[in-house]
Fold this sequence. Notes:
The protein contains 5 helices and 5 strands. The protein has helices spanning about 5-15, 50-55, 75-85, 95-110, 115-120; strands at about 20-25, 30-35, 40-45, 45, 90-95. It has a 5-stranded mixed beta sheet.
Amino acid sequence: MSYFTIKAKEAALVENRIIRVILSDSTFSIYVFLGKNKDYIMSENYCSCPDFYYRVLLRPKKRNIDRLTRPTSRCYHLQALQLALAKDKIRNIVVDFTTLRELIFEIYTMDKSFILRKLVTK
């Protein structure tokens, strides 16, 4: 793991860029990584970033036996999420279904959720 990756993960924690969005009246939640240019939707074993797609999903099958469990097969965002979960450094935001749907739609269509950024700054 490179020095840059370690520093970037630590910066993500210090800057509170990992948000857990919890659906009100439910146990459903997603994680969102607030990037400087793009936001990414995550779970503990998935990230919507291109690096995850290429590094984990498109690798040759002989290397993919345990592709989701090896730390080296995770993108920087998932590594930061894992570190944030271990250190309990995740910000929680509770939203209703409509807001969650709009937030996800923004991330997938505009690469960034302005709704979530507004909620985070409150």
